[in-house]
Amino acid sequence: MKKPKISLQAAIILFVCIVVALSLGITDLLISRGITSSVEDTQKDKALNVARMVAISPQVITALEEPTNQGNVQPFTSEIKELTEVNFVVVMNMEGIRLSHPDPNEIGRHFRGGDEGPVLQGKEYVSTAKGSLGPSLRAFTPIKNAQGIQVGAAAVGISLDTVTKAVHKGQMVMVIGTLIGILIGIIGAVGLAKYIKKILLGLEPSVIAKLLEERSSMLQSVREGIIAIDQEGKITLVNRAASRLFKKAGIEGNPMGQSIENYLPETRLTRIIKSGQTELDQEQKLNGVTILVNRVPVVVDNQPVGAIATFRDKTEVQLLAEQLTGVRNYADALRAQAHEFMNKLHVILGLVRTEQYETLTNYVSETVSHRETEVGFVTKMVLDPVLAGFLIGKLSFARESGASLSIECTNKIPMPATSKTTNELITIIGNLIDNALEAVADRPNKKVELMLDYAEEILTVEVKDTGKGMEQAIQDQILEKGFSTKGKNRGLGLYLLQQAIERLEGDLIVSSKIGKGTNFAVYIPYKEEGESV
Q1: pLDDT tens digit sequence for 486-529
Q2: Fewest C-beta atoms under 10 Å: which of 17, 169, 239, 253?
Q3: In what order do the strands lie in the sheet with 225-230?
């Protein structure tokens, strides 16, 4: 069974309370000692001051020198006692006999406590002893006449209970202060806890830690590179895919904490923070490695506080696009063949129902013969079954489009050394044929020619059409990404064609005349199967 987890608010309150209590407790202990010592010193000074005041009183000195005047001492000391709020004021002669005392019955008796000896020898001091009024703090001062001769002594006592009460009063102030401090600490802890909870969106630390682990796992598992910066342009996040791309581009070192301007000068992420605008599908060079980048600002409370860039090697994206293009071409070819076959079945069904068996026989024979001739020629001259099947599908697609597609092949085309070459050829030939079929779509003579030739390890692919042709200005732009004369969201086919030719290290020559059509000629180094690439 899992132990219940304490909430963040409770933990903060408990921690603050413990810290405040310990701090104030230790402070209370240290100050209490000081207060006790201070109170005792204050009481000692008070007793000494009262004793000194009595010792210099002419009335007291006269009484000690002239025994007939001793009766005046008791009223005087009683008045001093009341005014100074001490426990007792005692005047004694040199024999230690009391001339005054709070209890009149004690007058004339010897001073009690046993600590009066030094004062009768002329010393001033403070001591603690138990006398007739109980334990007390007692200050002793010698009494001297005008000639400096000691004639007696004054003793002033303060009850130890009074001293203790004064100490307790000071300690009580400290205790009250400590309790008030703890209360204020609790209130502050509650406020701090609520503030922190608000910043953390009400989430507990354990939940935040779990979310952080999940986020980190997701970021590290994606194939796209991810890099994030804060408002000052410092790198705060780099996932594994980004590190691999940086390493591939020859960018070494740990990027965490570095300035993005120093680590990746051309990233333009700091510009995103300033503008707050998103940039999608942007090309960028990293030491010769081309990447496709998406840059997005991180906005909190309508203020940009950072930026994130996701990116991927452009080569991988192109390969994926070409693979999708190849699949699409396969699908289009199969769809065209299926549609053509269904049309022929409808013709056959109609001839059967009308019982035109002779016509049916001729039609089927002609269809089979044409099919065998067409398929036989392609499969005989193109030894790569994937490419051959693709070309047969394009023949059907052209017929469905109402155009004539002819295939000429001077020499046999052997199997390529790698399947990559096949995929690239499908992209090249497919885009050339599709482009040519679109060019003749609105022409009276809808004719497209595909010529293949292989000699001296060079494969030649030439596609001619009877379209209306292109002006030179258009020829100069047709290979650019996004350029098209057929409307928006077009212009990718010939761009992918150019990229595929570059990867195969081939050449492309385009020639076109207005009213006479266009000719695309592609020359590609071509290795046979079994040859080293």
Answers
A1: 655 455 667 778 888 888 899 988 888 888 888 999 999 988 87
A2: 253
A3: 235-238, 225-230, 303-313, 289-300, 279-286
